[in-house]
Specification:
- By secondary structure, this protein is α+β, with helices and mostly antiparallel strands.
- The protein contains seven helices and eleven strands.
- The strands form two sheets. Strands 1, 2, 3, 4, 5, 8, 9, 10 and 11 form a nine-stranded mixed sheet that branches. Strands 6-7 form a two-stranded parallel sheet.
- The radius of gyration is 19 Å and the shape is globular.
- This is DUF2971 domain-containing protein.
- It comes from Flavobacterium cyanobacteriorum.
Amino acid sequence: MYISHKNIDAPAPDTIVWKYLDLSKFLDLLLCRQLFMSRSDKFEDQYEGTFSEPTFEELKKISEHKPGFLDAYKNHRKNIVVSSWHINEYESFAMWQIFTKNNEGLAIQSTVNRLQEALVPESRFEQHIGEVKYIDYKKEHIPFDNDFFPFLFKRKSFQYEREVRIISDLRKYNKNINDGIKVDIDVNAMIEALYIHPKSENWYKNLVIQLMQQLGFNFRIEKSDLESEILI
């Protein structure tokens, strides 16, 4: 299900998205056929799932007549889990730098529609997909008529992330979440192509290809544009 609102852009189904990760996390995804979704209050950004100043002032007025109203929103964060994807028509040098180490790692190329198809309907948890909007938290308003909206806005400092999120609300499951949860996915539906780190050595590239063959996956493996030879 796509999350849409007059203040939030619903991502187009053919939007190209990427996830950059190390080999161990990628193999865990393949072997378990599950996608890890992180607990929202575990992200590095302390503002994650919070409200902008204009919205907070509005909520404070409401809470004057509803004791516990603000506390409920604060507690809500630990029950929201998120899988983050990067919107880009092309691979991103910055994302390689941020999410991989030692010139090793992989990038999954997918689309919003593929993510939707990959989320197994029989999964215990209901998932929603929305595009993050980047705003000025001192001036702009965040709507609060949907529990997911605080998690679809971030400060302008994070604009480089260009993020699409898969989000689940686990409050009704009374589940004790540590760092996050894993949800069932159709791996073949999710992955359109696989890119190996552009600065990785040949042995690493060969290892990835060999692992895919041994595990029975035939993903399209693309050469990174960032390792193309110069023409002069």
